[in-house]
Specification:
heterodimer; A: 303 residues; mainly alpha; B: 329 residues; 14 helices; 71% helix
Chain lengths: 303, 329
Amino acid sequence: MSATSAPGAVSTAPSKKPGNDGKPGRPKRPRSLKRVLVYVLLSLGLLIMSAPFLWMAVSAFKTTSELTASPPVWIPTEWTLDNFRDLLDKLDLPLYFMNSVIVAVLVTVSNLVFCSMLGYALAKLKFAGRNKIFGLVLGALMVPGNLMLLPLFVLMSKMGLIDSYAGLVLPFAAGAFGVFLMRQFMQSIPDELLEAARMDGAGEWYIFWRIVMPLVKPALATLSIFTFLGSWNNFVWPLIATNDPDKYTLPVALATFATDPNKAGGSNGMLMAGSFLIVLPVLVVFIALQRHFTQGIATAGMK
Amino acid sequence: MSTTTGKAAQPAKVQAGPGTTSPAAGPKGSRRRRKSSMGVQNMAGWLFSTPFLVLFLVFMAVPIIATLVMSFTDFGLRNVTHPLDANFIGFENYTKLFSDEKFLKSLFNTAYFVVVGVPLTILLGLVVAVLLNNGIDRARTFFRVGFYAPVVTTIVAVAVVWRFVLDPSDGLVAGLFSEVGLTAPDFLGSEKLAMPSMIAMAVWRNLGTVMVLFIAGLQAIPTEVREAARLDGANIWQEFKGITVPLLRPTLLYATVITTIGYLNVFEEPFVMTQGGPSDSTLTVSLNMYREGFNFFHMGYASAMAYVLFVVIMGITVLQLRLLKDNTK
């Protein structure tokens, strides 16, 4: 936000245009050896970071003979879609994709509503017990998920919710992280604004829904992305809460496929194709919305 | 923030809204209204909290307590349908745990993963953050996105990819080894190398989170402080040690705590890459607990494991908070 190139700066007019940023106006710094070294180090690091992705992408299009060649082939001579075809024959990916989408959408929507509601109460409403509830939220942030898995499974079995969307969604319907995030953002809304609305007779629900929620849209965007992705990538609970393959989410389907020697049987081609199909949409979404990610992490990490 | 002034006018439209009662409220009336507004806030506060609290109670608080209760019972498969039939057996599960070689091994493996993995993740994350924050103004976003990308990917898919990357005959690493005329070891099939391989993958996947935290922390350090140090003749290392590290300590604390908690719970990596093998060398506490609970249905025993892990996590977190706080003084 502070990127507003200081209005007081006595720079020449063209430097204010964002397009040719700084070239004429800013004094040229010498392209020192240090800077070159930094670029080299970072590029090297980036190459290592992206290597597994590149390997996955390339391997997904290799023929079987090139996949199993030793030493491995770097660039396939013949690109093929066979791996994807085989995979789709053996694994009902569209079904698992839909399961993942349904669960993630439900989890996201319920988090947006419930976490915002409590976030608003904690940030802007004075009520008895507020501090205790906030303490509860902070405590919940620290409890590892493993601690609940066993009774949760028993509970869901008793409720008949194993192999149901409800069973997959309910334990994640309102997370402490979301409450914390929304509270942080809502605190920056001036009290005078809400007081004015109250003076004019607006009810709390109206204030929350019509005044506060529109003001925290950026926070809602951040929370949506985090929650959706968290649900999309979640593995342990869906693994426990589903027995029927028809209710598997993508990660569970892939893991079951990958760890069962009778199914994938060491076919790296199919596995790379599957990973490619799961990882690619996530990466695309991330790159498109990356600003929200880094902002969300930084905001949550600051306090 | 310019939106605030824009929105401030909006509530005026609400005047005829549902809440407005007597329009001829004098000074007395406004006082009463303020009082009743407090009452409204009290009720609204609880109403707004209810959905979260109900979900929290049913799906978190009760299960947390139930795990504790279950850990003192012989809860097994038949108790999934008849939970109340489980028998209390006191501390038997806990005493059994500490003579169970498999559990002790999983505890050791988890500790190994944390003790090597956390410092590596923090250090590399800090290095990348410092590099990104200093020498570079172009392509900063490009690099940041690149280093952060593994964080957002589906861990199961990524673990599958890494399994192939590390494949000793046709994997990426095997290719690199053969380029320089060496034969790659069987990383995931070797008792000694399986855990280091998994740590490498965890560092690769998590350093982006730490990097983003450090970048935010670095940007919060006022440039004047650095400039002053430079004018006083501090070199890069002195500046880093004397200014950056102390001022970054809160970030360092937070990053260390969340990374440690995450690594203590490590599950997906061994589940997908090695299934805990070879000969339990990558069996972590979480994987052990999952198996005891959901493969063998020794749920009472698995609950005791969950609580031991929880106590370890709490203990280490408190210790870290104390250590890092004391150092600032």
